[in-house]
Amino acid sequence: MRRILFDSLLKGPLTEPAPSGDDPELLALGRELKTALDAWFGGSLAIRMVDAGSCNGCELEIHALNNPFYDLERFGLKFVASPRHADMLLVTGPVTRNMREALERTFDATPSPKWVVAAGDCARDGGVFAGSYAVAGGVGVVVPVDLHIPGCPPTPLQLVKGLLALTGKAR
Amino acid sequence: MANHRPWPRRAVDAGQWSALVASLAAGERTLLGLWGDADCVHMALLGEKGRDVAVASFSCAQGCFPSVAARHPPAMRFERAIHDLFGYEPIDAPDERPWLDHGRWPVRAPLGDRQPPAPEPPPYPFLTSVGEGLHQIPVGPVHAGIIEPGHFRFTANGETVVRLEERLGYVHKGIEGLMTGAPIARAAKLAGRCSGDSTVAYAIAFARAVEAALAVEIPERAVWLRALMAELERVANHLGDIGAICNDAAFALMLAHCSALREKVLRASAACFGHRLMMDAVVPGGVAVDLDARAPHILRSLVGRIRAVFPRLVELYDNTASLQDRTVATGRLDSALAQKFGCGGFVGRASGRSFDARRDLAYPPYDRLEFEVPVLAEGDVNARVWVRIREVEQSLRLIEQILVRLPAGEVMAATGEGSGEGIALVEGFRGDILAWVRLGGGLVERCHLRDPSWLQWPVLEAAIEGNIVADFPLCNKSFNCSYSGHDL
């Protein structure tokens, strides 16, 4: 272990620079929300991730946000274990009818002020699963959504961009 | 049954059905899958030597069939799912509770005679454990991490788990219902989204079943590219999981290094195939993306990079006593149970069940590739980690062989709009994925996909017994069963 730690010290971090926020749509959103974020959350944001029916593709990429390349925590964004500790819900998947109540209860358990971000194409309108007897629809059908990050699944970079737009930290 | 390829399907009567069930119970055959269809149920079986597959169909014109689970417990959840989706009654079934249907759908038996739903969601009685000092710990469906939803009901005596009961079905999306009547291309998209971490393996399984049904030969280059993607997917998943298992034992250094390696695999996949998880890259008829000239170089340097870093991480895993303390002898899966349930992938192979669809069914190009199938007997978390470590090494060998021998040429063949039935068994990173389709005029009449997790989730309940509650994340991660693939 000593050798690995020593090597890591010499090589320096893998972490990459933050993506630029040159997407006009995201920039506009970022400006709008930055004031609110600074006023309410003191510049940092605790995220509770909820899988409401995804295929697990989105979770894999959300996991990647914590790897040494993206290291989301350096932006003041961190994942927490309980909705009671969260400022934001990051919801994936078409909401299945079997998960609908669990999502509503997680939303209700999150203290206000709170935001909901829907990640992935399914989370917008059900995606390829729309129309199934077992699917209620996009996240917005069940809880109010503030931001949607598209992609199937969204890449970690898309996710970072989306979340940074929300906190207004994108440069 | 004519037009069922590549293995036979036969209609059987009650006597033959019960003889097959007896052979399952006696361990002469292994249950591969059990699923419903219009007017019948199908049962896929693997022969004793693990090399021949057959499908038996029993007519459900009366709305019922003799329960398989009555004598062979691995069939229990399949039967509960058949009852939920088709409404067929398994006669003498040991468990009559619903499984996928939580009473929230606007319809009952959605793939069968479509009954109106019950006015109230019916109660779901959990199994009981009675004794002094026992308490229950309910967990989920929303878990504390970035994972899929499911419910676990632990009964514990102090810290020791005496019973675990799983309740799944939360992510049931009705995939088989959506596939019914869909064009092949749309069904392929759905198949690739059964379980995001196995999207390549699912896409190959579905594509092979369709190609078998239509008797289509795909170009040789596509065959090799599929295997290349499948091995990249396997390496990425194993790397991520080895790190995550160590992280659950509070050893975060391994997670950091393994997840960096995993990220490199995903980036190389994106550079070569245009998508980090390689979704929709495999399609019926061949593959949708071809490698460009710089791809072999990217993949060779990826393999070199992993070869340089991974052995040191393996050494770290092997030499860290605090880690071994948590993984050795934890979550032991008995080899007899693994055999009985036909557990696939590293779950079975860490418990002495030597089955690998790549080797035993030798679908191309694996019949022309050299690789070993690692098998261990201990069946604990440590054994599952070691099988995965060895599989990473084998997959790197495979990737190199594929790069050397990759033929030139076309990557797509026309599939046409024929009819027929096809079945395929493909080795995903988690184990063997079964795909069965019936096509009519270019449309999917019925498709069934069976995730390896169907046969691994139940044995997790057994493996956790006698362990402490705090070791559950470790055991669960070492199995890493799919929720979405299982719930479908």
TrEMBL record, chain A:
- What are the EC numbers? 1.6.5.11
Task: Kindly give the SUPFAM superfamilies that the UniProt entry links to this protein.
Answer: HydA/Nqo6-like
**Which stretches make up the NADH:ubiquinone oxidoreductase-like 20kDa subunit domain?**
55-166
Instruction: Keyword check for Iron, yes or no.
Output: yes
**TM region(s), chain numbering:** none
The family database entries (InterPro entries) matched by this protein are listed as: Complex_I_20kDa-like, NADH_UbQ_OxRdtase-like_20kDa
GO MF annotation: an example: oxidoreductase activity
Give UniProt keywords alphabetically: 4Fe-4S, Cell membrane, Iron, Iron-sulfur, Membrane, Metal-binding, Oxidoreductase
Q: Enumerate the cofactors the protein uses.
A: [4Fe-4S] cluster
Write out the coiled-coil annotation as residue ranges.
none
Among its keywords, does the record have Calcium?
no
Task: Specify the domain of life of the species encoding this protein.
Answer: Bacteria
- NCBIfam families, alphabetically? PRK06411.1
Recorded hits in PANTHER family, A to Z, give:
FORMATE HYDROGENLYASE SUBUNIT 7-RELATED, HYDROGENASE-4 COMPONENT I
**Similarity field:** Belongs to the complex I 20 kDa subunit family.
| Name the UniProt record assigns to this protein | NADH-quinone oxidoreductase subunit NuoB
Can you name the source organism? Candidatus Rhodoblastus alkanivorans
Q: State which gene encodes it.
A: nuoB
UniProtKB/TrEMBL annotation, chain B:
Q: Which InterPro entries match?
A: ComplexI_49kDa-like, NADH_Q_OxRdtase_suD, NADH_quin_OxRdtase_su_C/D-like, NiFe-Hase_large
Keywords recorded for this protein, A-Z: Oxidoreductase
The record's annotation in Gene3D superfamilies points to: Cytochrome-c3 Hydrogenase, chain B (1.10.645.10)
Enzyme Commission number(s): 1.6.5.11
Question: In the record, what terms sit under GO molecular function?
Answer: oxidoreductase activity
- Name all NADH-quinone oxidoreductase subunit D domain ranges: 256-414
Name the source's superkingdom.
Bacteria
Q: Is the keyword Oxidoreductase assigned to this protein?
A: yes
Name of this protein: NADH-quinone oxidoreductase subunit C
Q: Which organism is it from?
A: Candidatus Rhodoblastus alkanivorans
